[in-house]
Design a protein that fits this description.
Blueprint (H helix, E strand, L loop, with lengths): L1 H26 L8 E5 L6 H12 L9 H8 L5 E9 L3 E8 L2 E7 L2 E6 L16 E3 L13 H10 L11 E5 L3 E5 L5 E5 L4 H12 L9 E3 L7 E3 L8
Parallel strand pairs: 1-3, 4-6, 6-7, 9-10
Antiparallel strand pairs: 2-3, 4-5, 7-8, 8-9, 10-11
């Protein structure tokens, strides 16, 4: 019985070594070489360059040996890429989904206008279609990303701008004592304060703007979105 047990143990060990060796060989074998790469999520001007870089690198891998860090490093220099999700499709495919940064505003410094994403990432060189609100930089532009401060707060507000109001917003400003202020064409200015809770603040602004009692207001203050205030309303006189 003891001899049989030793033989079984030896067999299991040898089988394990053989399987491990086979798997090590197989993971880099041409049998599982990536031949088909599907890249999704790219919609912007630099998309073709990103797709080409990821496609070429993925074809040097196998579906059992995916170097995700290498793919992330290749994508990192492209400002439009926020993140990538990589999924091998055994035996010879790979799917890569790209989450994009989208331009929220145009950052203006002198004669320069650079698209900027809602997280403050500069999308230098990106061709922009359609109008975007302007945010005045008030100085030299950073190389890659806005730091904390008024400009980043304004860009965050731009990033949450409801589509229904997009055509009414040409510029987003910062004013002393008010923070971020969004003047609406043919409408009031919306006072945001800082760049926090921007979606809740826009939702509050939309509710006030739709209220007939707020018609003619000079401003809508949404710094506390639960208690928005319409100010500068015309004084009603009693006949």
């Amino acid at each position: 019985m003891a001899r049989l047990r030793r033989r079984l143990i030896a067999f299991v060990v040898i089988a394990g070594i053989l399987v491990a060796g086979y798997l090590l060989w197989l993971r880099d074998s041409s049998l599982v070489q990536v031949e088909t790469v599907t890249v999704t999520g790219l919609t912007q001007a630099d998309g073709a360059k990103v797709r080409a870089a990821l496609d070429a690198a993925a074809r040097e891998m196998t579906t059992l040996h995916v170097d995700r860090e290498r793919l992330e490093r290749l994508a990192a220099p492209f400002p439009i890429v926020h993140s990538i999700d990589v999924r091998p499709d055994f035996p010879n495919g790979m799917r890569i989904h790209v989450s994009e940064r989208r331009p929220a505003a145009l950052l203006v410094s002198g004669s320069r206008r650079v698209p900027v994403a809602a997280d403050g990432s500069l999308l230098t060189g990106l061709a922009v279609k359609g109008g975007l609100p302007l945010v005045r930089a008030g100085g030299a532009l950073p190389s890659r990303r806005l730091g904390p401060g008024a400009r980043l707060a304004a860009v965050r507000v731009a990033g949450a701008l409801p589509a229904a109001l997009g055509s009414q917003v040409k510029e987003i400003r910062t004013e002393q004592g008010k923070g971020v202020v969004v003047p609406l064409e043919n409408g009031p200015s919306v006072v945001f304060g800082d760049g926090s809770r921007v979606r809740a603040k826009w939702a509050a602004a939309v509710r006030v703007l739709a209220d007939p009692d707020a018609a003619g207001a000079e401003y809508v203050d949404v710094r506390i979105p639960e208690r928005p205030v319409a100010g500068g309303l015309p004084v009603k006189t009693v006949a």
